[in-house]
Design goal:
With 474 residues, the protein is mainly alpha-helical. The protein has two domains: 200 residues, Clc chloride channel; 193 residues, Clc chloride channel (Orthogonal Bundle). It is 70% helix and 0% strand. The protein has 21 helices and no strands. The radius of gyration is 26 Å and the shape is globular. 51% of the residues are buried.
Length: 474
């Protein structure tokens, strides 16, 4: 006799809850996958978070730089000991970079430009060291040492490099763990431009910098991401440091006559072109000595350049050390009037001190030194032509910077946003465009792309050991 089938058991409340959770998790995953394919879904939220973290990192980096600069071991503070401490710290900084992260040398903008133009999933492993956390850490430590020693350098270029490293690292982490379709190049462009904006508190200049320097043709496809990253990075930085103007609040300047702005632009373009070519040719001439396997040759080169910097500061004045912001601010405020040949003398001495620093292989930027050189140059021309010194210094900054880095729009936008004087905009634009055109006319190269070209070797295949023509067999 067969027994009737038992009636199916009714699902328990626990089973109902379990199946509900499973369905909810599956549904959530489906929604996340769909949202990740949307342009303004989770990827944009991640970019917002990375931009905020980048702005905070730039502020912390700035505070460390300012601390090292305030405690600089200049000849005015420690006397003749500077002839020993500056070369020793330069050598220490150089060897730190050489041994731990060779790609941390220089301003950091060429590294960022090369990554922005060449980074892809296929080249990521070859270019990983350009924007790694190791490179960033070594760059920060080596820069602080150099500034403490008295290097004529700034933090703005390194801020771009640091910001790109932070931004890209966060994007790579999210791409790996959350499986989001995030683009490497857009992270580099957004991070680098956000770093410049946070460093100067100039969001518009961040946009123009992305277009003019980082990746002009590519920016148009990601302009919304880049602009939002710049805005959020600037807001995050401002929330940490409060209201910030690079040169402080300036008095309303008197207008600069057209002929004065044009004269400053022409002279700024000529000297900016000379500065640009001196950086490139000096770096190429000293490359074999700095890369020498002989310790003595490397130390003689770096120590000799550092010693020349100390001698120059002793002969001319300590203002040639550091970024030079004090001189620029005094000129803009009208507290320092370049009587006689002071402006031209300072411009020459500051140019030489910056070249000595850059040629020695230090980590550091040239933005701030260029501004101080240009301000003294513009002030001197304005004083000679009986034009307002402060306003002429503004024009000089834009003219020399445009002539040196070949980026006229970024140059006049930076100066305009830092000074915030609308009535000066036509004169600043005139100086920047004239400086750029004169620099191009005399054959100056586009500085940052020319420096970035040196990183092409990272994409070259490494020959197997023992192969003919390889370093191992030569």
């Amino acid at each position: 006799m067969e027994l009737p089938d038992a009636a199916p058991e009714a699902p328990s409340p626990e089973d109902d809850r379990g199946s509900f959770v499973v369905r909810a998790v599956r549904r959530t995953r489906v929604l996340l996958r769909r949202a990740s394919r949307q342009r303004y879904g989770p990827p944009l939220l991640l970019y917002f978070s990375a931009a905020a973290a980048t702005g905070a990192a730039c502020v912390l980096f700035m505070r460390g730089f300012d601390f090292a600069h305030r405690h600089q071991l200049g000849i005015d503070k420690i006397g003749a000991w500077a002839f020993l401490t500056t070369p020793a710290l330069f050598i220490l900084s150089f060897e730190m970079i050489r041994l731990e992260a060779p790609l941390a040398a220089g301003t950091g903008i060429p590294q960022t430009i090369f990554a922005a133009r060449r980074l892809s999933p296929s080249s990521r492993r070859l270019l990983d060291s350009l924007l790694s956390l190791r490179t960033m850490t070594v760059k920060i430590a080596a820069l602080y040492l150099a500034v403490w020693a008295g290097a004529s350098t700034g933090r703005e270029g390194p801020s771009v490099h640091v910001a790109a490293c932070v931004f890209l690292t966060l994007v790579l982490m999210a791409r790996s763990r959350l499986k989001l379709p995030l683009d490497f190049r857009s992270a580099v462009v957004a991070g680098g431009s956000a770093g410049l904006a946070a460093a100067f508190n100039t969001p518009l200049a961040g946009v123009t910098f992305a277009i003019e320097e980082l990746s002009a043709g590519y920016v148009s496809s990601i302009r919304d991401y880049v602009i939002m990253a710049i805005i959020i990075s600037t807001v995050a930085a401002d929330s940490m440091r409060g209201e910030y103007l690079y040169f402080g609040k300036l008095k309303e300047p008197l207008p600069v006559p057209l002929q004065t702005a044009l004269a400053i632009g022409v002279l700024g373009g000529l000297l900016g072109a000379l500065f640009c070519e001196s950086i490139l040719r000096g770096q190429a001439a000293l490359a074999h000595r700095l890369a020498s396997p002989r310790l003595q040759e490397r130390w003689k080169t770096v120590g000799g350049l550092a010693l020349g910097l100390v001698i120059l500061s002793w002969a001319v004045g300590v203002h040639v050390l550091g970024p030079g912001n004090e001189v620029s601010q005094d000129l803009l405020l009208g507290d320092r009037v370049p009587h006689g040949s002071y402006g031209l003398l300072f411009s020459f001495a500051k140019t030489i001190s910056t070249l000595l620093t850059y040629w020695s292989g230090m980590a550091g930027g040239i933005f701030a030194p260029c501004l101080s050189i240009g301000s003294a140059l513009g002030g001197a021309v304005g004083s000679a032509l009986r034009s307002p010194v402060g306003a002429s210094a503004m024009v000089g900054m834009a003219a020399f910077l445009a002539g040196a880095i070949q980026a006229p729009i970024t140059s006049f936008v930076i100066i305009f946003e830092m000074t915030r004087h609308h009535n000066m905009l036509p004169s600043i634009m005139m100086g920047a465009v004239a400086g750029f055109m004169v620099s191009r006319a005399v054959g100056a190269r586009h500085l940052y792309p020319a420096l970035a070209a040196g990183y092409r070797k990272l994409l070259e295949p490494v020959p197997p050991p023992g192969r003919a023509g390889s370093p191992a067999s030569s």
